[in-house]
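Run log // design_07
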């Protein structure tokens, strides 16, 4: 009997793809050569994909979906391939970034973590390194994500920069990412941004309780034609919304939350106290 390499789906996203492919193939009682003949490649090529030695292609993923009846579903190999190619970014996020680069007003609400547009490089790297340790992304994908954060920040520096309204949940300030030095610099960065004429930063305190309008991150972009695009995400997916009847209530809720949050002066004072370790 030929030696069968034991797979570790937690090693990387590519390894997870290969392990799932093998599991589905074996569940149907197919050897690699049989599956290869169906999708139009060699058994050696299937083996290389299953063991993570070669990446799958879009065409291969689509053929596998046709064979397993997964085409167009949330479990499709094509969907998994696209996640691999974009560095595990959620569906809808690349589209959102395109709108973000030309927005004239950006409204953000974030929980738990500092928004990407405000992150220091050290904070972004510490955050993405944790994803590598958990096997969610590869080291290369993590560095690509950090590069994307810095590129997004660079688009804000232009002759007519966008106006940014940011509401951070108090949890964002208390989540210790990267250790004391990284967090100290990150909080200092928030104070620096608050001094810029196009940045308005507010903290939504824990005391808001049930009055907090959102419980997931929300991004609202006003485009040059004054239309508004919304982006929201869960753990599983992101979604860009352009339908006015759906976006306007989100914009209203955002303004309500902004009114309930601390003023910019009070927010900066809180950030400063936390940075200095004062009660």
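design_07 sequence
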């Amino acid at each position: 009997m030929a030696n069968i390499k034991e797979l570790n789906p937690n090693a990387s996203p590519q390894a997870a793809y290969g392990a799932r492919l093998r599991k589905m193939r074996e569940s149907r009682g197919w050897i690699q050569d049989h599956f290869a003949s169906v999708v139009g490649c060699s058994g050696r090529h299937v083996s290389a994909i299953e063991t993570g030695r070669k990446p799958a292609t879009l065409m291969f993923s689509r053929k596998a979906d046709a064979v397993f009846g997964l085409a167009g579903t949330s479990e499709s190999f094509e969907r998994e391939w696209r996640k691999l190619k974009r560095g595990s970014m959620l569906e809808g996020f690349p589209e959102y970034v395109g709108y973000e680069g030309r927005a004239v007003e950006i409204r953000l609400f974030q929980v738990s973590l500092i928004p990407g547009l405000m992150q220091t490089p050290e904070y972004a790297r510490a955050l993405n390194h944790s994803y590598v340790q958990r096997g969610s992304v590869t080291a290369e994908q993590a560095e690509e994500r950090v590069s994307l954060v810095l590129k997004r920040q660079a688009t804000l520096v232009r002759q007519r920069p966008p106006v940014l309204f940011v509401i951070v949940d108090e949890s964002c300030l208390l989540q210790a990412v990267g250790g004391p030095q990284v967090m100290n610099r990150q909080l200092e960065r928030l104070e620096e941004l608050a001094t810029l004429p196009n940045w308005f930063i507010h903290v939504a305190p824990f005391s808001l309780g049930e009055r907090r309008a959102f419980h997931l991150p929300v991004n609202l972009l006003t485009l040059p034609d004054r239309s508004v695009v919304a982006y929201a995400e869960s753990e599983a997916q992101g979604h860009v919304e352009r339908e006015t009847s759906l976006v306007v209530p989100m914009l209203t809720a955002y303004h309500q939350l902004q009114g309930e949050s601390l003023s910019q002066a009070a927010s900066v004072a809180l950030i400063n106290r936390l940075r200095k370790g004062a009660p």
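The first strand starts at residue 105 and ends at 110.
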